[in-house]
Amino acid sequence: MCCTWFISCLLDWANQPVLCPNERVEVLSGCLFLLLSNILLLFCSLDKKTSNLTSNRFVWLDDIQDFTAETFRIDKKPDPANWAYKSLYRGDIARYKRRGESCLGIDAKKQCITWDSSASKRKQLQRRPERYFTKNNVKMLNTDGIPVCNKNSPSHPAAFIPVFQMETDDPSDTMEVNPLGIYDTSTTVWLQGKEGRIADHEPVNTQQTIQEPGIKINSILMAKVEEHNKKVRENPRDINAWMEFVSFQDELMRGPSPYASKGEQEIRRKSLKLILEKKLAILERAIESNPGNVDLKLARLKLCTEFWEPPALIKEWQKLIFLHPNNPALWKKYLLFCQSQFTTFSVSKINSLYGKCLTTLAAVQDGSMVSHPLLPGTEEAMLAIFIQQCHFLRQAGHSEKAVSLFQALMDFTFFKPDSVKDLPTRGQVEFFEPFWDSGEPRIGEKGARGWKAWMHQQEKGGWIALKPDDDDDEEEIDEDQEIKDKTLPKWHIWLDIEYSREARQWLPWRPDKTKKETEEDCEDPERQVLFDDLAPSLIQLSNPDLQHQLLYSFLQFLGIPCTSKLFPSNLYIAMDENNIFDSVLSDEKPLTSVDFPLSGFNSTGHMDTMLRGRHHIGHYKEGEEFIQNVFHVLFLLFSGKEKSNLSIYWLQYEISKVVQCLQAKNKRKLKAQGRKSKKLAKNLLKAPENRNDLSLWKLYAYLEWLLGNIDDARKVFDTALCTVGTGGLKSPQLCSLSLLYAQLEVELLESIEGAVMSRAAHILTRLAESGPYVPYSGQVLSVNVLKARKTYEHALQDYLSKTPVSDQDQVSDANQLVNLVGCYALFQYLTVGIDAAVLIYAQTSEKLEASGPQKCENTGENFGVQNFPSALEAVTLLHTNLLKFHMKISVYPLNPLREALMEALKRYPSNQSLWRSYIHIQRKSHSASKARRFFDGVTRSTNSLEPWLFAIQAEQMRKKLTENVQRADVGEIHSTIPESGLTNRIVALFEHAVQSENGTHCPLLWRMYLNFMASLGKKEKSKGLFYKALQNCPWAKVLYMDAVEYFPDDLQETLDLITEKELRVRVPMEELDLLLEV
């Protein structure tokens, strides 16, 4: 058709006349006609081919007039690709955009269309879901939400956001009138014929509701900033307001800037430095308004740690101490700061700093420093700082100086002459120096009489020379050869000799005048302690409770278990021993397991690496004689109850050595130690004042029981019960003795069946009868059991309703209540069952909780000697121990014990016994999620370090169990089974723990962390961690000794570092080389 039209046009043009006389034009016209003719022939041929093709495949609309409504195209050529693919080629399919998920014309109640969109699926596959740590999600989580409150609440009305609830009869009604979702809510309601309902609602402030969340949050933050500024402006003396303003900066920096304009994209960098600078500016403003406040200055110094170098910080600390020399809390923080600065640390500097601190506080106490008043609690703080200094010297390896400090202060406190008591402290020290340098025996040395006796004798003309005992001429022959095997590596030999000398030479060396020795005869000058090293640290203690605290701290320092604990400020920086996880005999004897009150602390003379552990029980001969002499001197000084307590502590020390022998399964050592301990117990009971002391009889019988002499122990128990008389439940000592006797007998039972006729039931029944004790004959009358139950019930009610008069009565009543509850619950357990015993414990705990909240930790208000666990804590221990025993001998669910432990640990998070029991039962659980949540909750709610330590220990036990299962029957070959991230979890726990306030300067925590990293074989990371630990605990010699074992190739470098920091090295490398050459 196109070709025909073109030819007709061409002919019309050719036939037109050309009005030009020129011949050239005629010729041109002829040529043009020929060209057009050729083109015409070409188009004719194409038109012919096209017409043929069109007749076969195409139909033109112009040619067909009758079938325009049904016109379509037919493609008869097959497409082989349809065999290979599931659908037609996408280019052959018409595309369109769908609006909504509905379809016009269908009934929404009866019909439904499901759209399968491959494009949406492809987009979903391409868009990966974002994790919580991505940038967008972190930003969203750090943004505070919009607060929503009730309309009638008294808060700010701008916080109320009304929410409409449209009531619809059927949710499908909306689909009928708005199938494509293109109408708004009001139009949809109008289409449904419900336009009247919208008028019922109150008008909405649309400008408020459509606010962007970011703008709303900005207004909230700005309101908070204005509120804080208003507080500190109106009341600049309010220290808490300033501190809250400083803490608010962290919250402010988490969200968007409240000062950014609307629509402005915030590009500021949220850096730590920016936050610190803002906090520092606020604190400087606060200090300008409160120049005398110490807390603000301490907060400022803590912030400056991130900016300043250690020398500049120390100068600022010195200025602060100069302005407030009478503040003991400030001195404690200053001492810890200087003690933990690795770059400027040395033992001599820190020791002199302790002396300067105590000298200054003593001057304030005496009143000689008139410029500053005496603050309350100064004397208690001085004793705490003194004990901290002694443990610092022990941890640095200078045990001789630490022992001498205790000796000097004991003489200075308990043996002070009456003629110098009215003098100031420095004047008393000047009188004390001649005694100390006179060469007379001191506390712990044979023949010691004390400062008072020496001065009294000097006034009469001096001492009478006494002949030395024959025992003094005997040389100690139990010293073994220092190098037993020269084929061992050099570092191993050094550790062996260092440990041996640490265990044997912890006492200060003094020349023996009977042997005509002089100071030049000392092979190691470091073993001599000069008076100038001790004089600045001598203080006055006028409070009797503090004097007893000093005495018991000295005994604990020597390794003797006592009832008192360290001061809270000293607790974690002195913790360096890995024995807090040792459950001594708890598996074999759940009811009577031994709990050492000062676990986690190395006693003097015991310092070894983490892997080797302690391999010596007690002390060597010289150390045991020193402890014996200390007790002999104290027996002459005290009388009555205090002397009885000293006897108990001495016998407990002997029992602790027996328990260590049992734990080590050393039968030969156990037999020898048993003879010594029994000899001491008998000698103590022979004393007239101790013959009726049931506490000593109880310990002696327990000692016989531990040694396996059960019949002899029963005889001792029966003898003590028969001789005590008829005290009954009103006698605390009788209840305690009967409770231990019954618990030991119950532990022998293999089943609870028939326990009502057992010896334990007889003991508890006779206790309630308040009559003379009759030994067990093999049966228990039912009538006596019923009478005893009534007696126990009435006695318990009387004690729970009793009100103590004084603190001493409160302690005595608490101990008696614990013993009474223990006897009653055990009696019910034997005669009725476990449920009756648990009911007794539950009722008592509920009553004690209702009587008043009891603090779980010593927070510093009471530094006295009577620092016993609270009654509720002791009752909880009895409760959990009984459940553990019952689960051992019979089938019983684990959940009651777990719940009891969890409730107790929430209340007493620093109780190591409860934590040991908890991780012991969790070891049997396959799922660790519940325990992990519990550990996480406790660590967030307390500052105690024990939850962190035991959480780490629980994960390490789980990792060890997993590895044992994976390596079963394959030796040491590592399995390819994944460990489910336990290593990373343990490392994360360590990192969080060492960043806590109490964990930063805890040597035990760093030792555990270093040991774990070394066990993974990561040498480079372990070495980096070692130097990181030294940045926080440079005084702990055990860290350096651990490093020698983990990195033996760096032995010389480690020893050079120890020498540089002036820690005690008993075996220099030059001496070791000489010993190896011999």
UniProtKB/TrEMBL annotation:
Residue ranges the record marks as coiled coil: none
SUPFAM superfamilies for this protein: TPR-like
The alphabetized list of GO BP terms reads: negative regulation of RNA catabolic process; regulatory ncRNA-mediated heterochromatin formation; RNA processing
Q: Which InterPro entries match?
A: HAT, NRDE-2, TPR-like_helical_dom_sf
The organism named in the record is Bubo bubo
Stated family: Belongs to the NRDE2 family.
GO CC list: catalytic step 2 spliceosome
Q: Which Pfam families match?
A: NRDE-2
Give the record's keywords alphabetically.
Nucleus
Check the record and name the PANTHER family matching this protein. Answer: NUCLEAR EXOSOME REGULATOR NRDE2 (PTHR13471:SF0), TETRATRICOPEPTIDE-LIKE HELICAL (PTHR13471)
* Protein name according to UniProt: NRDE-2, necessary for RNA interference, domain containing
User: Principal localization?
Assistant: nucleus
| Localisation per UniProt entry | Nucleus
The highest taxon in the source lineage is: Eukaryota
